[in-house]
Amino acid sequence: MLAARRCVPGVFTLGILFSLFVQCARAQFMGKQTGCYSAEMEANPHGSIVANPNRPTVANPADITQYGVLEIEYGWDRGWLGAGGRQSDLVGLLKFGLLCDVELRWNTTSLIALNDQNGDRHGFGDNWFGPQVRFYRQTTHIPSLAFSYAVKVPTASTSKGLGSGRIDHQFTILASKDLLGTHFDLNASSFLIGRDNSTGFDKNFQFNLAFSHPLRGKLALTGEFYGNTKLKSDTIGFVSMLWALTYAISPRLVIDGGIDTGLTPGTPQKRMFAGLTYSIANLYSAAKHRHSAAKTP
Questions:
Q1: What b-and-e string marks burial along 139-175, b requiring 16 or more CB atoms within 10 Å of the CB?
Q2: H or E element: which one contains 96?
Q3: How many domains is the chain built from?
Q4: Could you tell me the CA-to-CA distances from 104 to 128, 148, 244, 255 in Å, in that order?
């Protein structure tokens, strides 16, 4: 409990710093970017906000959150780890379209509840921060292309076995393309994982191929195949597959649910999940509206 309490001020401080950074960025960049909105969004920035879900797949799309839009994703996972072990998580992602092609990202695990041979434990998880930069927008023959970086802030309790207590890094190349009515996301990631009892990092890779196809109306089917290479001698590589349904309640709100199943030894037996993606607001247009209203006599 003491370790969890120590995590709260750190996460709260990071949240304040994130908010201050957004305020500064808004002051510097608002109105400096051109061609960031479609004609529809230029005419009605609030009414044409469309969510850009990263859920429910492990892969992320190369295309980023709309310019100026603050978007949140949140969900619940329940995994069966084998040998009677179970793990439940509450996970979230906060995204902000800082520039036309730059997105700021905060991945957080609000709660981990773990039950295995070492007993029942629960507490805060780790937090990941970093940008995603899109450097090419999809054309007829070429997919959208992006690069992302994330660093882990080790806020999970090591005494409870919920985290390593080490800083990790993730570097990812992303590609997204629409083909024959189906959307594809391809990711290739390199991880630098902090070693437990020495300095330096161990390295492994992750590869993801995800696809989504409309079924009927606002209902869509999502699938994914992904896997990690071996990290070190006692951590083997694996391959998993994921299947989910998504439903767009509105352009700004998308819900999802599905199952993830391991295809090779060394993976969790299965994982069930459910969550949502919601575009909160266009902060830049809201600030412009307040500024214009303040000038009106």
A1: eeeebbbbebebebbbbbbeebebbbeeebbbebebb
A2: strand 85-99
A3: 1
A4: 11, 10, 26, 22
Task: Tell me the chain's radius of gyration from C-alpha atoms.
Answer: 20
Torsional sign, CA 164, 169, 240, 235: negative
Enter the tokens of residue 154. Answer: 């080790």
Q: What is the pLDDT of residues 207-240, one digit of tens each?
A: 999 999 999 999 999 999 999 999 877 778 899 9
Distance CA 285, CA 44 (A): 10
Count other C-beta atoms under 10 Å from residue 186's C-beta.
17
Q: Which helix (H) or strand (E) holds 28?
A: helix 2-29
- The closest alpha carbon to 46, from 64, 76, 66, belongs to 66
Residue 21, domain extent = 2-295
CATH number, position 157? 2.40.160.40
State the pTM of this model: 0.82
